[in-house]
């Protein structure tokens, strides 16, 4: 960033103790590791990591899983929206669980059967055409699968190759075969943030070499718009909904997701991030927390937090992002 702000000035009242409460082992785990810098072999980190799979949220999700490995619909991992297998795996991957959990491994193998030969994941039933492959969905599934421990799986690599191959000329992403995007030329913010988030999760050096150009072009697409503004219209706000902070964010786009992904990819000194950071800081509460403004409450297998209330997840992600900026 072009400026430097003292960390304590931003935090005001620190929410760290709140984030470390044992009632939410997922947030506690990521706070210990990402905010406080504890190593994975730290005793408290190991204890907290183990507690994630035993948490009420995770257990409620797993109790609703069919023994075969799916949630809700055996013929479609996409429908019903937010409750079926794709969506539920996205949630679990964010909570810090991985494929060492037998139920998670079974669920991942279930959704792999829907992957098309091109590499993308479809939003329809098994055996559907390539038109149903979506860049946002495939990006989300790659991100989830990498977090769940499948980074080096050949099926994930095939999905990554597909995402790189279909990237739009302007650096963003569209769904190239989907009829709704058939005449579009401008990249889609939702379709762009999901592949970039997937790439931000990848640690393999082999992958990194293949993705360098794609990441650079995708990041430039967001940065040229200052994350949420129209570059050809006096930088007016494109969509007011992008200012609403949500979790889990699934396919949706918002300024915090843009900031989180770009800083994770190493973009920490670009002044075009400042508009997004300023907007985010304006939303900080006096106690140092941020509020959950957008979430599909009542539509997931379990509600993660209460909409309209201070959010541990939003606060964690915001602090993690600010730490990368060294603000």
SSE diagram, text form:
Elements: H1 7-11, H2 16-19, H3 25-35, H4 43-53, H5 56-63, H6 85-95, H7 102-112, H8 135-147, H9 154-165, H10 189-201, H11 205-224, H12 255-264, H13 274-282, E1 290-291, E2 310-311, H14 312-325
Antiparallel strand pairs: 1-2
Helix pairs in contact: 3-4, 3-14, 6-7, 6-8, 8-9, 8-10, 10-11, 10-12, 12-13, 12-14
Order of helices and strands: HHHHHHHHHHHHHEEH
Determine the structural class based on helices, strands and strand pairing. Answer: mainly alpha
**Stretches with pLDDT under 50, minimum 5 residues:** none
Distance between the termini: 9 Å
Strand order of the largest sheet: 1-2
Work out the strand percent. under 5%
| Whole-number mean pLDDT | 92
Profile the largest sheet: 2 strands, antiparallel
Query: Could you tell me the number of beta strands?
Result: 2
Task: Explain what this protein looks like in three dimensions.
This protein is an all-alpha fold and 327 residues long. The chain has a domain at 1-21 and 30-37 and 240-327. The protein contains 14 helices and 2 strands; from the N terminus they run H-H-H-H-H-H-H-H-H-H-H-H-H-E-E-H. It has helices at 7-11, 16-19, 25-35, 43-53, 56-63, 85-95, 102-112, 135-147, 154-165, 189-201, 205-224, 255-264, 274-282, 312-325, and strands spanning 290-291, 310-311. The protein has a two-stranded antiparallel sheet with strand order 1-2. The radius of gyration is 19 Å and the shape is globular.
